[in-house]
């Protein structure tokens, strides 16, 4: 979870009153935060935020904004925000995007902030905001990278280019010699840390102004001149680049609102794309893309176990800074421009709960007495785990959400049965996994340093579309196992399958099967009671190459639900 360090005096001054530490600890629950530590000597508060869906809270100004609103202050408004039907004036401030970036790092947003002199505290806060957004929300700069520049040195339009990594050269921040983009990845500390994001690309993202003066090599490092923000600067240009447009727009708005709360005047910037984007080819940022959301009073009352009047619901949402209307049983909200965490009516109920005051909910003793026990499926899974460990396999545990690239493209399979999340936080959590094998291959791809052979397995869940199911999808308990070794082949995996079925008391047959994940002619379907329950074989060389694996691998996947149903 993200932790921030903020000046105690600046924090209390911004709140408009001082709190004792126990009072502050209680108040921070509104932002799902905890007072982690207090550095009395330095006058710093160390606060841990426990909600990864609220990156707007990961800064002094964002946290203060939420707490002040909860304490009764009017929610701030931000007149510089453009909307789909309202584009703000951008003047000459324009970013032009190179067509070559479409498959590299396609999206950018930005703004200019002026009218406030940068001091030590403000510079420290800006750097912390940049680090928290790009590291936590931005997946270590892969999804979001942010640059801050001395705006007075920039001539518009800014050029966002796809640059040749060997011919393009500049002097990076904290260095005095000129390096090519590829040399920066090898020689600069930031290049060594973040070079993995771009090193495989045919061209690298690059930012210059209209005269060719270098701003930065995103997402790696700024230039030593325009990108060296110092105490005393009064006008800053802020840009954010990344892979998902909504993610970039949200991060841009968060930073712009924070800087507006610090006293800056925010000047919008127009971005001109040569290709289609979800928001069109011309976009003025900061930009609010959020849409209205709805729920009902009856649904909220059922979830929270408390009856509310319209006035109580309105007061609760107002304290959370959420614009809303209530007509009859229907509650309609407009998310704040710096939030994108209203994905379901439950999220509205949660804000009503927090705004109403969690201490106003009386605790209730459970009315039913139940005895906990393992489900039949879990008991079967545990039995399978013991057998796999007994055969020399090491158990792994993986996430159930992942990217299209990992679950579909690298595996050479269709997405026909795959389930895509409608509003993912990022492309890394876009799909529910349809198979265990990508997870096993991902683990093997980073295990080449370990002594071979590698034998790993997981018993976990997968989900696939099923039009005959009421929900349109079905979840299965699966066993997947993989062997990586020079001797790993069809016969080795077949022997493991035979041992597993023997100890489970299952008679089986094999049939040849074609599957793009496996080598043709070295693949078999596993049938029990005439029903196909799994597949195994030698992993296709192209799949191994996609994962960067150089060792031969053989793998198997078995549907445990069907296996134990089959006679």
UniProtKB/TrEMBL annotation:
It catalyses: tRNA(Phe) + L-phenylalanine + ATP = L-phenylalanyl-tRNA(Phe) + AMP + diphosphate + H(+). The keyword Chaperone does not apply. Its cofactor is Mg(2+). InterPro entries: aa-tRNA-synth_II/BPL/LPL, B3/B4_tRNA-bd, DNA-bd_dom_put_sf, Phe-tRNA-ligase_IIc_bsu, Phe-tRNA-synth_IIc_bsu_arc_euk, Phe-tRNA_synthase-like_B3/B4, Phe_tRNA_ligase_beta2_arc, PheRS_beta_core. Gene3D superfamilies: 3.30.56.10, Bira Bifunctional Protein, Domain 2 (3.30.930.10), Phenylalanyl-trna Synthetase, Chain B, domain 3 (3.50.40.10). Pfam families: B5, PhetRS_B1, tRNA_synthFbeta. Keywords: Aminoacyl-tRNA synthetase, ATP-binding, Cytoplasm, Ligase, Magnesium, Metal-binding, Nucleotide-binding, Protein biosynthesis. Mg(2+) binds at residues 341, 347, 350-351. GO terms for molecular function: ATP binding; magnesium ion binding; phenylalanine-tRNA ligase activity; RNA binding. The keyword Ribosomal protein does not apply. GO terms for biological process: phenylalanyl-tRNA aminoacylation. One of its GO terms (cellular component) is phenylalanine-tRNA ligase complex. It is found in: Cytoplasm. Residues 288-363 form the B5 domain. Its main location: cytoplasm. Its EC number is 6.1.1.20. Tetramer of two alpha and two beta subunits. PANTHER family: PHENYLALANINE--TRNA LIGASE BETA SUBUNIT (PTHR10947:SF0), PHENYLALANYL-TRNA SYNTHETASE BETA CHAIN AND LEUCINE-RICH REPEAT-CONTAINING PROTEIN 47 (PTHR10947). NCBIfam families: pheT_arch. Belongs to the phenylalanyl-tRNA synthetase beta subunit family. Type 2 subfamily. This is Phenylalanine--tRNA ligase beta subunit. It comes from Winmispira thermophila (strain ATCC 49972 / DSM 6192 / RI 19.B1).
